[in-house]
Amino acid sequence: MRFAILGPVEVHTDDGTPVRVRERKVRTLLAVLLVHEGRVVPADRLIDDLWGEGPPADAHAALQTKVWHLRRALDGAEPGARDLVVSQAPGYVLHAAGLDASRFRALVAEGRLDEALALWRGPALADFADAPFAAAAVAHLEELRLTAIEDQAEQRLALGGHVDLAALVAGHPLRERLRALHMRALYGAGRQSEALDVYAHGRALLADELGLDPGRELTALHEAILRQDPSLDPPRPHLPEALTGLVGREAALRHVRASLEKVRLVTLTGPGGVGKTRLAVEAARGHPGAHLVELADSDDPAQAVIEALGLRDESDLAAALRARRTSLLVLDNCEHLIEPTAALTAALLRGVPGLRVLATSREPLAIPGEHAYAVPPLDDGAATLLLTTLAPGLAADEAAALVPRLDGIPLAIELAATRARTLGIHALAERLDQHLLSAEQRGTPSRQRTLRAVIDWSWDLLTGPERTVLRRIAVHADGCTFDAAAHTCAAPDIDLADTLARLVDRSLLTPGPRHRLLGTVKTYCLERLDEAGELAATRGRHAAYYTALAETADPHLRGPDQRAWLATLDAEAANLRAALEHAPAALAHRLVDALAWYWFLRGRLTEARRHLSHVLGQGQGARAAAWQAAFTLLSGEPADPGAALALFHDDPAGLARAQWFLAFAQRGIGDTTHLTDTALATFHELGDRWGAAAALSTRAAKALLAGDLTSLHDDALTSLDTFRTLGDRWGRTRAADHLATHAEITGDYARATALRTEGLRLVEELGLTSEMSWRLSGLGRLALLTGDHERSRALHTRAKRLAAEQANRPAEEFAQTGLALTARRQGHLDEAEAHLRTWLDWMRLLDARPGTALVMAELGFVAEQRGEAAAALDLHLQGLAAARASGDPRAVALALEGLAGAHSLAGRHELAARLLASAAATRQAVGAPLPAAERGDVDRIESRIRQALGERRVEAPPLDEAFALAEEV
Question: For residue range 172-197, what is the model confidence (pLDDT) as tens digits?
C-alpha cells in the first residue's frame, strides 16, 4: 500500500490502483495518522483534530467508528491492509511504509534530488491546507522541499546547467540562499545587471521587512559579481585541451554522444593508436562535469579515479562521486586492468545515479548495459588530411601515396609526419617500406603489427645514448623531472640535457618540466629495457631516488615548508607508488615510514594501510606496525596499539612518536593518558619540540574528556605557541581548535569562532581536506549555539560530504551528529533520530564512550520531546552508563539532565528537581556551568517541574545518591 501527502492526500495499492476514502472525517483521520509518520497518535488528539471544539457525546466510540471505516476502505482495496491501522496505547498508529514523504527524505539523503522532487504533486496536504493539525507538518515539508530545490539548483549550476528560480524567489523573497542561487544562475547566463538587481531588491526587502542587512554569503556573492570573479564562471570539463582539430571523426563523434544520451556506459574499442582517447575526450566536452581518468600508468583503477578527482580515499568511492556530483568519467586505457575496471565501473554505475562512464579499451568491459563501439581507422581522405595538417610541407598527392601504408592509425600518421618534416617524402617512403610494411609481430592483428613497426622504426633512428635514456625513463610513472631522470637514466658518456631535448624534438617525449612518454611508446621501451638486462637495476635506482625524496620531504612536512613539500609529493604520487611496488623490503620499510605523515595529512588512510600491509607482509617493522595500527583506528576500525608498541627496541624517538600518534588516533576511545604522558616525557628528554607540542595538544583533548578545563586551556595554549614558533600550520590549527572548544564551553562564542575560522583558513591553504571537515563541523556547532540553524545545517552538511569523500568515518560521524543536534533544535525529531542511530552500532563497536554518551542523551531528549517517558528513561540510563565509563563529568551532567526530563515527564517532579540540581552542581564543580545558549533542554524541564512544584527549591544530592535516584521508577 502506497500513501501520499506531498500534494492532496492519496492512497494507492502497490499496483497503482487508487483507494477511495470518501467520507471527510475518515480522510481527516487518515491525514492525521499519516502526518505522524508511524508514531502513535493519542486518541484525545485524534478527537480534537477530527471534531475540534464540538466533539460528539461519546467521542471515543465515534473515533472507533471512523477507524473502522478507514480499515474497511483499506482492506477493500487490498485484503489484509486493515492491519496497517493499529490500536496502540494511548491511541492509534498507521504503519505507512510506502509514504511518499519518507521516500522523499531518503532520496534527498542519497543526493537523488530529481527523483525526490518528482514525488511532489502540489502543496503538501493540499486538501487539508487550513486544518490546524497540518500546519506544522506542511511547514516542515515545505522547508525540506525548498532546501531540496536549492540543493538541486546548486547541483545543476555546479555542472554548468541552467536553472530558473525567479518564481521561487518571488514566493520566498527573504530566503537568502535561494536568492544567491538565482543571482549565480543569472550571472552564469551572462545577465550580470539582472543578478545585481536581484541583490538590490533583496537588500531592500530585508531592510523594510526585518530591519536587517543581507548575510555575509549574499554580500560576498554580490561583491564577487561586481568584480566578475572567475570562480563564478560556469564549470568546464576536467579534460585536456586539444592542440589540433579532430580530423575525420565527425560521424563517430555524433554516434558516441548520442549513445551517451541513451545508455550510461559506452566503451570505445579498437587497436592501440586508433584514436580512442582523442575521440573520448572530444565526446566528453559536452559534459561540464566530465573528468578524464588515465589508467595507463595505474595499477589500481579506484586510486586513479581518486587522484583524477582530487579525492583522498577510496573506501566509499560511490559516496564521494555522489558528493562531488560527477556526471561523466572517462576511463582511458582500461585494457591492462580490464577485470578490476569492469568491477569498479559496475559498482559506480549502481551506486551513483546519473553517472555515465565513457571507457577506452582494446576489449569491452563486458558488463550489463554496456554499449561497445569499435572505433574505425581513418578513411584515406581523413588520413591524408591529418597527415598534411601535421606535416604542412607535404603535398596532398604525396600524402595520399603514403596513407595506405599507415592503415589509418592516427598514431602511425603522427609519427610519420614527424619524420616527414626532417627526412622528406622520398626518404620517408623508403623507411616506411623497410619498417612499417615488413616488421611484424605475429599473433596480433595487422594494425598492431604496423603500429609496432612504426615504433621500431623510430627506435632505429635513435643514437645509442638516446635509446639508453628513452628505455630507462620508461620506469617512471606519470613522467619525471630532470633530476629524477638524472638519477635513473644518466651514464658517463651521456649529455642528459641534450639527449632529452633531442627526444622531445622527435615527439617521443613531452617537453619538461615533467617529461612523459606516450603510453604505447612506454610499453615498447620497457620491453627494450628488459631485453637490455637493465630493468631490475633501473627500477632499483628509481626506488632509491624516490625513497630519498620522501625521506628529505618528511621533516619538512612538520614546519614552515609544509605547503611546498606537500605539493612536491602530490606531483610524485604515481612514482612513489611505483617505487613501493618494486623496492626491496628494507627500502620499502624506509619509504612507507617516510610517507606515513604525508598520507595522514592528505587523508589517504586506505592507501596508507594497503602499502603498510604489503611491507609488513615482507617482515615485521616496528614503525610500520605502529603506523598501521594508528591508521586503522583513524579509519574508524578497532586495532591493538599495544602489539605494535611491543615491537620497538632501542629507538626512543620512534617509540615516542608512535606512542603519541596512537594516542592521537584513539581520541574518544579508551584511556590513553599513559601513552601521551610517556611520549611527552621522552620528547622533552630528546629536545623534540614538535613532538612535545603534538603531545600537549593531544593531552589537551584528553583533559576535555576528563572535565579538566584548566589543563585543556593551558596545554592547548602552550602547544599553539610552540607550533607557531616552528611554523607548523597543521599543529597550529589542532591546538587552536582545542582553545576554541574551551571558549565554546565557557560561552565565549566570538573567540571560539575566530579561532576556528583561522584554523579553517590554515587547513585550506595546505589542502588538508580531512581537517577541513572537522573545522567546518566545529563552526557548525558554534552556529547552532548562536541560533543560526540554517548556517549550522549548511556547515555540517558540507563537513559530512568532505568526510565521506575521504572515508573518514570519525569526522563523518561528528558532522552527522551536528546535523542531528541542529534537526532536534529545529523540532525535526524524526530527522534527528535517523542521524543519531546511523552511528550507534559503530560507536559501540569501538567502545567510544564519550560519543555514545552524547548520542544516547540526544536520543533520550528526542523521546522526551515526543512525550515517550519510558523510552526516554531507558535511553538516558544507557547514556549515564556510557558517561560514567568515560569519566567526563560534563557528560555525566548531561545524562542527569536528560534523566530529570524523563522523570518529570512521568510525573516524578521531586526526583527530577534533585537530579537537575545534581547536574548543575557537577558542572559547577569543573568550572563549566551551562551557558545561556545551551540551556534549552534544562529550561524546558525546569518549566515543567515549576508547574508542578512551584518555586520550591531542592538540595543537590551527592553524585552516588543521584545515580541511585536516577534509576528509581
Answer: 998 899 999 999 889 888 889 998 99
Q: What is the pLDDT of residue 848?
A: 80
Domain that holds residue 269: 250-374
Lowest-pLDDT range of 505-514, 769-778, 786-795: 505-514
**What residues contact residue 899 under an 8 Å CB cut-off, 6+ apart?**
860, 873, 876, 877, 880, 912, 915, 966
Distance (Å, rounded) from C-alpha 245 to C-alpha 76?
67
Count other C-beta atoms under 10 Å from residue 233's C-beta: 11
Nearest-angstrom CA–CA distance, 870 and 864? 9
Give the model confidence (pLDDT) of 851-883 as tens digits.
Answer: 899 999 999 999 999 999 999 999 999 999 999
The kind and range of the H/E element at 430 are helix 425-431
Same domain, 334 and 388: no
Q: Helices in 159-297 by DSSP H: which ranges?
A: 166-171, 176-188, 192-210, 216-226, 250-262, 276-284
Q: Name the DSSP class of 404.
A: G
Cell of 433: 617500406
Q: Assign 773 to helix, strand or coil.
A: helix
Do 10 and 131 belong together in one domain?
yes
CA-closest candidate to residue 656, choices 621, 615, 700, 694: 694
Q: Which of 869, 850, 862 is nearest to 937 (CA)?
A: 862
770 sits in which H/E element: helix 769-785
pTM to 2 decimals?
0.64
Q: Which residues contact 795 (CB under 8 A, 6 or more apart)?
A: 776, 777, 779, 780, 783, 818
Same domain for 221 and 258? no
List, in order, residues 6 or more apart from 915 with CB less than 8 Å away. Answer: 896, 897, 899, 900, 903, 962, 965, 966
In a domain? residue 649: no
CATH code of the domain in which 6 resides: 1.10.10.10
247: part of which helix (H) or strand (E)?
none
Most confident of 449-453, 689-693, 932-936: 689-693
- The Cα 703–Cα 441 span in angstroms is 70
Number of domains in the chain: 7
